[in-house]
Amino acid sequence: MSILTVDLPQRSYDINIGPGLLGQTGKVAAKFAGGRQIILVSNPTVYGLYGEQCRESLVNSGFEVILSLMPDGEEYKIIAEVLKIVDEAVKGRIERTDLLIALGGGVVGDAAGFAAAIYQRGIDFIQIPTTLLAQVDSSVGGKVGVNHFQGKNLLGAFHQPRSVIIDTDVLKTLERRDYLSGLAEVIKYGLIYDDEFFAFLEARVFAIIDQDEETLQKIIYRSCQIKSEIVAADEREAGLRAVLNLGHTFGHAVEKLGDYKTYRHGEAVAIGINAAVHLAADSGLMTAGEVDRVRDLMGRLSLPTRFPDFDPEDIIAIMHQDKKSKNGKIYLVLPRGIGDYVITDNITEEQVAKAIKEAQK
Ligand SMILES: NC(=O)c1ccc[n+]([C@@H]2O[C@H](COP(=O)([O-])OP(=O)(O)OC[C@H]3O[C@@H](n4cnc5c(N)ncnc54)[C@H](O)[C@@H]3O)[C@@H](O)[C@H]2O)c1
Ligand SMILES: [Zn+2]
């Protein structure tokens, strides 16, 4: 097992990474719980696979578990589902010193984390991410929230977990599409932050596809480490943290135009990264060879890269609604070569449309 620390003033916490850690849930919870009760939030898919193991570990540590299941799917990452979690908490008399545990992918983690942030002005919670995407990205850093019909993640809070438990064994049951989708965020870290890590991914494509244990540990560890460093430097996204949005302004538009059903988050991010690298090349930030490396890596990992045939004007209109739009300008993160980035609002709509059209080829 390896442990990483997210270093934040008064809110530092550990990320525990390793196989078989679900069985440790009770022990970890016991470190933080002030009360005897736990509200465990999951969905029927994940609970059916791992719920009993998690509950048993909590019961063995003397906790009483109240269960709250939300339906499976990004379309349920909405405020109504958060309020249902809150209802269960009220009904179960969850107190301020009790804990919430989120067991699931990014959807459960974001929605349940938001419930923890608002219930009685905030209770402690633990993230147990069960998808690759949630393990390398959404469970770390304290961004919690839900979608609004007008846009992605428009409601939310910063609420750091007390601990993150990453059991790498649970990835074995992930659908291939969900596993691959998580790799988009992994590529993102290499592309904006670490050229050696990017080269490692290129060299280990087959091991990654086969979910080779050692390779998985390494990519999860390095991804969490990069995310932790960025979050520790800029918890509330005053600057640096925005680099984590690479590909996301495009990606959120793709998700929205697909009604949050057609594309997985990571798939939309891969498509967004493809548009971003074209834009970077057009702005003189990347060479054609570097663009090819990024597209090749995503292609070899079976990630979609072709931008769907939505009208570029519709996409740009949605990009303006994105939270990352400031004073009417689209605020974008672009790669600078491989392993570095720029944050810019100096890009014209014409350039954005051109990059989308390139990515639609
Ligand atoms: N908060 C953040 O900082 C942050 C960062 C990145 C992404 N996100 C959010 O994360 C969400 C996407 O998360 P996701 O990709 O994990 O999707 P998801 O939570 O919908 O999970 C994908 C599917 O896998 C199933 N599943 C989960 N774990 C499983 C397992 N171990 N075995 C079998 N099936 C399993 C789920 O039930 C679901 O059907 C998006 O809403 C995105 O906005 C948030
Ligand atoms: Zn993301």
Provide an overview of this structure:
This protein has 2 domains: 2-173, 3-Layer(aba) Sandwich (Rossmann fold), CATH 3.40.50; 176-359, Dehydroquinate synthase-like - alpha domain (Dehydroquinate synthase-like, alpha domain), CATH 1.20.1090.10. It is 48% helix and 18% strand. The longest helix is centred in the middle third of the chain and has 21 residues, at 213-233. α5 (132-138) runs parallel beside α9, α6 packs antiparallel against α7 (195-203) and α11 packs across α14 (349-359). β1 and β2 (13-18) form a beta hairpin. The protein contains 14 helices and 13 strands. The strands form 4 sheets. It has a 7-stranded mixed beta sheet with strand order 1-2-9-6-5-3-4, sandwiched between helices. The model has no long low-confidence stretch (mean pLDDT 95). The chain has 361 residues and is of the alpha/beta class. The protein has helices at 25-32, 44-60, 79-91, 106-118, 132-138, 176-193, 195-203, 205-209, 213-233, 248-257, 265-282, 288-300, 312-321, 349-359; strands at residues 2-6, 13-18, 37-42, 64-69, 99-104, 124-129, 143-148, 151-158, 163-167, 325-326, 329-330, 332-335, 341-344. Residues 137, 185, 248, 265, 269 line the site of zinc ion.
Bound molecules: nicotinamide-adenine-dinucleotide, zinc ion
In round numbers, the mean pLDDT is 95
CATH architecture of the largest domain: Up-down Bundle
Count every beta strand, where a strand is a DSSP E run of 2 or more residues.
Answer: 13
- CATH topology descriptor of the largest domain: Dehydroquinate synthase-like, alpha domain
Quickly count the helices.
Answer: 14
Order of helices and strands: EEHEHEHEHEHEEEHHHHHHHHEEEEH
Strand order of the largest sheet: 1-2-9-6-5-3-4
Q: How many distinct folded domains?
A: 2
Helix content: 40-55%
